Amino acid sequence: MNRRTFLRCGACALVALGGPPRFLVRTAAATAARGKVLVAVFQRGAVDGLSMVVPHGDPAYAAARQTIALRPPKRGEADRAVDLDGFFALHPGLAPLVPLWESRSLAIVHACGSPDTTRSHFDAQDYMESGSPGVKSTPDGWLARAVKGLPQPKASPFRAVALGPILPRALQGDVGAVAMASLDRFDVRAGDTGARGGFEALYARSVSDLLSGTGRETLEAVKMLRSADAARIPPANGALYPRGPFGESMRQIAQLIKANIGLEVAFADMQGWDTHVGQGAEQGQLAARLREFGGALAAFAQDLGDRMADVVVLTMSEFGRTVVENGNRGTDHGHATAMLALGGGVRGGRVYGRWPGLAREQRFEGRDLAVTTDFRTLFGEVARSHLGVPTAPLFPGWTPSRPPLGLFA
Amino acid sequence: MRRLAVAFLTLGALTGGGVPASGAGPGPGALGEEPTRGAPPLADDRRILHVLNRLALGPRPGDLERVRAVGVDAWIERQLHPETIADAATERALATLASLRLSIPEALRDYPRPEPKLREKLQAGQLTRQEMMELYPPEKRPFRITAELQAAKMLRAVESERQLQEVMVDFWFNHFNVFAAKGDVRWYVAAYERDVIRPNALGRFPDLVRASARHPAMLFYLDNWLSARPDFTVPAGGPKGGRKAGLNENYARELMELHTLGVDGGYTQADVTEVARAFTGWSIDRPQTEGRFAFRPRMHDTGEKVVLGHRIPAGGGQDDGERVLAILTHHPATARFIATKLVRRFVADTPPPPLVERVAATYLSTDGDVRAMLRTIVAAPEFVSAEAYRAKVKTPFEFVASAVRALGATVDAQGAFDLARASAEIGEPLYQAQPPTGYPDRAEAWVNSGALLARMNFALALARSRYPRVAVDPGSLVTGADPRSPDAVLDRLLAALVAGQASAETRAVLTGELTNPQITRLTAEDRGPASTDVATLAALVLGSPEFQRR
Lengths: 409, 550
What we know:
The complex is a heterodimer of chains A (about 400) and B (about 550).
Chain A: H1 3-17, H2 22-34, E1 37-43, H3 49-52, E2 53-54, H4 61-64, E3 82-83, E4 89-90, H5 98-102, E5 106-113, H6 121-130, H7 142-148, E6 160-163, E7 178-180, H8 193-205, H9 210-228, H10 245-258, E8 265-270, H11 285-304, E9 311-317, E10 337-343, E11 350-352, E12 373-374, H12 375-387
Parallel strand pairs in A: 1-8, 1-9, 5-11, 5-12, 6-7, 6-8
Antiparallel strand pairs in A: 2-4, 3-4, 5-10, 9-10
Chain B: H1 2-16, H2 43-54, H3 63-70, H4 72-79, H5 88-94, H6 104-110, H7 116-123, H8 129-134, H9 143-159, H10 163-175, H11 185-200, H12 205-213, H13 216-221, H14 250-259, H15 269-278, E1 282-285, E2 292-295, E3 305-307, E4 310-312, H16 319-329, H17 332-346, H18 353-366, H19 370-378, H20 396-406, E5 410-411, H21 413-425, H22 443-446, H23 449-463, E6 470-471, H24 474-477, H25 486-498, H26 504-513, E7 520-522, E8 530-532, H27 534-542
Antiparallel strand pairs in B: 1-2, 3-4, 5-6, 7-8
Helix pairs in contact in B: 1-25, 2-3, 3-4, 5-9, 9-11, 9-20, 9-21, 11-12, 12-16, 14-15, 17-18, 17-19, 18-19, 20-21, 20-23, 23-27, 25-27
């Protein structure tokens, strides 16, 4: 049985066995009013997709990585990769995501990446965020263009929010996206109400243009956030976010969603994936990052509970890493990696995409996992199916040459 | 009677600086009017304010009067020749920032990379980045180079008398951007600004292109140092011996798209490849110890190239790249592209096409003389037109510098670190623009909610002296105004901060705020009349829509 027939049968079995996850059924009525949310998560530094979602069924996997290959999954043994479908396994650091895989909320797209071959972090991030591989001059980001295509023309000042001090490339553009370092700090820090009122009056009275319009929206947003008291909404359902900036970002995105203030697109990122030296296997440097990453995503899903029916989390990274371990027990810059889609109407419990194989002759330029799914196919499908956004403007000059993945029902 | 006094004092602030009615006074008849209260400003003062907002980083208290005294045209001409302007105080203030003066090999020596063993420990999770860096004294950490460069940029922006030079250094750095956090660029970036950008900021554009093309910062940032003929293999012996290298088009593409012709400049993918071939071998000698330009003949593609229809015969070497630069810098598309960007910086986000054409013509007739192009711009009716007035939104860097200048604050190198952080919080971490486009020069890029709030918060913190290393005294701006008369205080403040040029709406709002008991506080001494919280009023002005524009 080759990989492709295996996948097909797996999908048939899923369709035969299960309906949508329970939360979808239960909350179908409520979702219309609350609106959909897309949360884009960028793993900056190029995550090693082969350790994150381990192709243990590929005969070339273990041999390519003498010290950093994960051992094949073994049921009942702790600290082992967790088998997904007989071919792929999740890194043990991502074990908190296994229940979401089992409830078919979590889908994986492997061998996904950019058609551009740059191995420069900054170029590749730029291309992925602008949605235009190989073209630097694209003025705005793909998520900003997605926001422009959202069905509701008049929207909340919190329609598009990035957690972090500066607006990421993906959300740059004329859509009024908010960048905030934290919910607590999104306020006029005056210590008294006089200054806040003063600024409100100044921006309310001034002539209508981009600057004063944004100023009014901003101060309106500040008031909205204060009255929603979003920063004080506690995690629900016993969700425990891991410590660290990424867990904080996800916790605050959940607060914004639960505050019902009109969030539609959110962005967060996590650093530290550039594992050139001492990458580790089940334990070690990468494992620690993955625990934080998986823990935060799982806590987010738990925190939101039924609300996850309206929310899709999409993860991405600028490229993957070399198939073969380097001389420093790490990996160098590669090509394709694995990306996750979680929640909403995602048909999870499945690894999507054609597996190109890890044997030398199957690799890209003899060294890297080849890209078989253009990241734009994945991003576009999520934007169209989840947010109802037309995809043509998202990726200028690109027409998909392959059929969609079928990530959504 | 008091009202007359207020008007007089206001006029004094507008025209004569700290001492009312001294120096160059207003013309006869002006005294009877209320010049800052809704009346149209003198066209001359408005033009001076405009020039100070565009050719400098905003006026300091008294600048308007100083420019008026020498004449605005003479002031501009002096700014075009910064070497004629004494600026010793700024140089003294920069003295504590040691990394600014180091050569690249000295920087590589004085700010060592963490030892490989420590980096391994870091990677293995046995050491946090914080712990690793704490093994080195703060003044020896590589990050210090960028931090000092950021501080120097803020310090010069606030304090330097050579304001136009600072404006142009900022402009050209963004035009020829390098990202200080990409690899070895960190050790090269101070030298790059000092040796490539600054000396040529008001010189000739082709010199800027040539100097940037061969600087290690640009060679590293846009990967040209690795670019080689397609069949090149790294000679055995070194760490990468035996590895195949090939053509890297990164620099070639950006050279045409962003540095010279512009994206619509009429080049093709074939031109990109040919230009990349011409620059093969333009590399860096020992990047981690020396960091010097080196031409490596063995990496160079010696075949014939055809660039934009110009034939470069086979058998060339380093001169292939130099020929390409000559072709590009003499191209009319380059003239138009550079003219467009300059007009966007000095006139409006959407540059008026007739002015662009005239500036492009100046480029072509002067071989890219930056001074000549700037003269064409400032003499143009488009530059002084009503549409251009306050048409530009300040970048975070410009906003921070102009706010500090408006308050008449003084800053030393230490305070400048804080100001650089403020610029980062508002969205512009200096020298950290990752894409080769540099930081954008259009309003949409900078106007977003988080950034506007950050501007308001900076205005509050600055005016309320929350930056201990930036000396601010808002009270000094209203010296002489009757503290029991909030109106008088406001007039003086607006005169000092925006040369009295506040919109009627802003003035009305601020007048309303004067009745706010949290702003108009009772004084402890007399319990009767109110005294005004000048710092908060100043913060409101600095955070107002007007002050975000230049």
